[in-house]
Amino acid sequence: MLEFRTQGYNGYSVKYSPFFDSRIAVAASANFGLVGNGRLYILGLTPNGIVAEKHFDTQDSLFDTSWSESNENQLLTAGGDGSVKLFDVNVPQFPVQSWSEHAREVFSVHWNLVSKDTFLSSSWDGTIKIWNPNAPASITTLPTHSCTYSAAFSPHSPSILSSVSSDSHLRIFDLRTPASAANHLTLNVPIHTPPKPRMGAAAPVGIAPSEALTQDWNKYRDTIIATAGVDRVIRTFDIRAPGQGPLAVLPGHEYAVRRLTWSPHLSDILLSASYDMTCRVWTDGSAMGVPGQDAMMEPQNMMNGGGREMGRMGRHTEFVTGVDWCMFGAEGWCASTGWDERVLVWDARGIMQ
Amino acid sequence: MANQTGRAAQAQERLSQVSNHLGGVRTAKGKQALLEKNPDDIVVTCALRTPITKGGKGGFKDTHAADLLHGAFKALIERSGIDPNLVEDIAVGAVLAPGGGATEFRAAALAAGFPVTSSAKSINRQCSSSLQACVDIANAIKSGMIDIGIGAGAESMSLNYGPQAVSEFSELLEGHKEAANCKVPMGVLSEKMAKAKGIPRSEQDAFAAHSFQKAVEAQKKGLFDEEIVPLKVKWTDPKTDEEKEIVVSKDDGVRQGITAESLGKIRPAFAKDGSIHAGNASQISDGAAAVLLMKRSTAERIGQKIIGKFVQASVVGVPPLMMGVGPAAAIPVVLEKTGLNTNDVDIWEINEAFASQCLYCIKELGIPMEKINPKGGAIAFGHPLGVTGARQVSTLLTELRRTGQKIGVTSMCVGTGMGMAAVWVAE
């Protein structure tokens, strides 16, 4: 396990470069992101451990970052002052571009993985904005009317994106739909819907809505999205059957789940980071095929859709807020960051059982 | 400095957001969370009322409560455009109606065009009956028992007010001190409370006169027109005993030219050295009001125009003799439940049962006077007991919308010692 200290700054997000296996970006904030400056670290993984290649300071807290998919030196930040900034590793000190349209804290930024020429941001002001890095103003604004903690483009389509927000709903927008009163909203799935009752198990009871904080598109199955949040439960949804309720329900975290990410290598593996100071690796049960007769008899397995926790990493000593997989090399390397001012780089295979 | 305070507020908001994450399955609180629009919000798509008229001599003196309710229902169906077949339950607050009015109100719903499948009930929580009716419907929607419902109120104090409204207490109840206090007349106990809390008559008269002046002004500007449904009723002229058909379109208890000085000349009603009189207490009145409630997702699905949402309500008991402090007890509870500060509320509709008790509550809560009952209150246009709760909703939401403000609270003291309060957001 490799370690780096973000002295004086509490981590909020960590992202591996999509171009280099040795480069990591960390968005961090002074004073736990409540008040004060933000700092964007560009870290290099070297034979001598993790070194800070560069850092950028910002006036307000930083809550998220996303690497450009088209330029290996550029990356975005999500700012507490409502700004979205584009930094270039080769340009010292200041961002090459800054956009201030959001009325409140920006919580997520995400680059379009398919067309690579647009990116999005989501904010506490209840909107998602779509941007072109070369344009001074946003292209489109999609209202959610609810503090939107996370929005992300589909890795399979340039015009489909999803969001989760504090109203406990997963929304899917399709930018190809005609501009209308619906603002490109094509699906609005209540996350707290209980799973469909299955044979042999008691009908699930209703669950209160709770804030959804994170989500991620599966990299192999183009209709599967995982969500998680304040109710501590990870769920997966198939957007082809939104009325069906969650496919997999994965309870286990002891506090709210702050970040979720699907493995870039294995279609059923998820990694989560939580306020309970752990990162956990999960399988949603989909890679096991049809559950066997024995598994069918276990009511617990029925409820969970066959998924389970495969292992946990408990080395952080404060809330874990960011986690990401390395896309290159052996298929278990990942990085995590949290409020303990640390970035940890570790191999998930070491904890999976 | 201003920047500093802005920063502090922002830090506080970020901190409360994180603490919400840690609180487990508990929905976010505070002003920001309140203003969010969620698909499972309970929203209001129509809130209206009949005029409120003077008991015994006003426009509705010969009209039954159920007939007033019938008028409100018909107008609600017409104005909202709701398909009556979609309304699953109707709750009607009423205090004085014999038998709670349950039979007549169900009949009024049927006569107004609701199908037999729309159920109806009556509710009596004294002066907060129709707020309770709205809250009951909202809770039934929230729990999934129904999808669409109406909270309403109807009262004819002209026909039903009097000694017959309360039966004699048994020896058992008379023998228990606090229980026996439930029977003490409102005026008498409010007089005692005004004395105990030290609310001088001059302040009460000034407050009452201001209520009249605000109502006159609002009437002049037509600020009640949106919430009021004119009603055609039969009315017997007391001079000629001739029965006529008249259209009532205005609150007829509102009087021009009332000042603190003119009220100062009226003799106290309940004690020789007292401070309470007809001019600084609520009027005896007739009227009806109705509020159409459903989930936001339902409203969007069936194309109903959303005018506001119901957020949360509270009910608290207080000593029966201190009935008037009810709002001061219930409001902090509802603010705590919603995470609001007193400053976050734009308009307060606090029922003016008596100027004395309303003033006490305002002082106790530290509410600026200009945010209280901006169109006047029960002292100016009346307090038809079971109607007031639903009446306040229509008054509040129209004024919030007109002035571009957002958050409002309705509250009232409740006979026998209770207070009720509710938070609403205009959209």
Automatic annotation (TrEMBL), chain A:
Q: Which SUPFAM superfamilies match?
A: WD40 repeat-like (SSF50978)
Name the domain of life: Eukaryota
Query: Which coarse location class applies to the principal site listed for this UniProt protein?
Result: cytoplasm
Q: Where do the WD repeats lie? A: 99-141, 250-282
- What's in the keyword line of the UniProt record? Cytoplasm, Peroxisome, Protein transport, Transport, WD repeat
- Indicate where this protein resides in the cell: Cytoplasm, Cytosol; Peroxisome matrix
GO terms for biological process?
protein import into peroxisome matrix
Cited Pfam families: WD40
Listed under GO cellular component are: cytosol; peroxisomal matrix
Q: A GO molecular-function term, please?
A: peroxisome matrix targeting signal-2 binding
User: What is stated as this protein's family in its record?
Assistant: Belongs to the WD repeat peroxin-7 family.
What name has this protein been given in UniProt? Answer: Peroxin-7
Report the source organism: Sporormia fimetaria CBS 119925
From TrEMBL, chain B:
Q: In which pathway does it act?
A: Lipid metabolism; fatty acid metabolism
List residues of the Thiolase C-terminal domain: 305-423
Question: What are the boundaries of the region Disordered?
Answer: 1-21
> Which GO terms fall under biological process for this protein?
fatty acid beta-oxidation; phenylacetate catabolic process
**Residue stretches of biased makeup (Polar residues):** 1-20
Where is this chain's protein located in or outside the cell? Peroxisome
Superkingdom: Eukaryota
Q: Which GO terms describe its cellular component?
A: peroxisome
Spell out the catalytic residues: 127, 383, 413
Tell me which family the UniProt entry assigns to this protein: Belongs to the thiolase-like superfamily. Thiolase family.
In Swiss-Prot or TrEMBL terms, this protein is called: acetyl-CoA C-acyltransferase
Organism, as annotated: Sporormia fimetaria CBS 119925
Q: What is the lineage of its organism?
A: Eukaryota, Fungi, Dikarya, Ascomycota, Pezizomycotina
